[in-house]
Amino acid sequence: MKSVPSTEERVWAVLAHLSALAFGMGILLPVIAWSEQRRKSNYAAFQSLQALGYQSLGYTFWILGSLVIIIIQSVFTVRELASAIQSGEDPASFMGPVMSLHFVVMILLIGVYLLPPVIAAVATAMGRDFRYPFMGDRLARYLGYEASKTDDESNWLIEDHEDRWVAAMGHFAVIIAIWGMLAPLAAWILQGKRGLFLRFQSIQTLAFQVFVTLLFFSSGFVYLFGFIAFAVTIGFSAGGEFNSSTAIIGFIILGASLLLTIAIILVIPLFHIQGQWAGYRVLKGDNYCYPVVGQWVEKRVMKEKS
């Protein structure tokens, strides 16, 4: 690697890191930066892959950690509120400080996520070889970045590991609602023609995320359908009575829609876990294939190859 990165290299690195400020939507930019710089600059390519990892794998750990903190804080709040009511205190006077504390915690959690990429952007703007804690050094060894002393074509990052990292981050990004699809989509469009592995992994990941996203929105549709059906049946019931046969049908539809909505919401995290498992398997060297979706994509990709 050259001792001082060029202005172009630094600009790509800065943009890749700062894209984390877009909270999910920015995951597209590191893939573009890596694709553009992967055989021009090891420095810019490595920094872009780091940024991609932070926005995918790092976001996964951040959101799970934030959920644990919020749940603990909510349990503490409910316990203190119940104690205040039992002791005869006014709940209104108690809720003010509690809501302020919740707000402060949320701001701190957001700051914890946004601070590292800002530091990374500043460091790379100065031409420094920034490494994210825990991930940076491991990724450098995985990609063979430490051995890259020059930008000769004979000394680029390890291509197979680059592709595996990009594919795995696409799998991990399933937890980023809607915007997570941008990572595999960009990898497929920009680098899919270069190799069968990355093309297959990107397409099946995109298909899998589309399925999970549609499943998520279907829960809202089912709930809305049940609510509208209930409102319509109550309106048609005689005098708006709740014990009429029409109203009872409405209650049944509403109850069924609520149960189905809850079932869908409870199932979605299982698909998120499967996406994390797929990313782990890809990093370990497997050509992971999702059940049904992956098999369907595999048949079509192999048909295109033949």
Query: How far apart lie the N and C ends?
Result: 39 Å
Task: Please summarize the sheet with the most strands.
Answer: none
The portion of residues assigned to helices is: over 70%
Structural class of the helix and strand makeup?
mainly alpha
The poorly predicted ranges are none
Cα gyration radius (Å)? 25 Å
The DSSP helix count reads: 10
Note down, in words, how this protein is organized.
This protein is mainly alpha-helical and 306 residues long. It is 74% helix and 0% strand. The chain contains 10 helices and no strands. The protein has helices at residues 7-18, 28-37, 42-86, 91-125, 136-143, 159-172, 182-191, 196-236, 245-283, 293-305. α1 packs antiparallel against α2 (28-37) and α1 runs parallel beside α3.
Q: What's the layout of helices and strands?
A:
Elements: H1 7-18, H2 28-37, H3 42-86, H4 91-125, H5 136-143, H6 159-172, H7 182-191, H8 196-236, H9 245-283, H10 293-305
Helix pairs in contact: 1-2, 1-3, 1-4, 2-3, 2-7, 3-4, 3-6, 6-7, 6-8, 6-9, 7-8, 8-9, 8-10
Using brief descriptors, characterize the structure shown:
mainly alpha; 74% helix; flat
Structure summary:
The protein is an all-alpha fold and 306 residues long. It has helices at 7-18, 28-37, 42-86, 91-125, 136-143, 159-172, 182-191, 196-236, 245-283, 293-305.
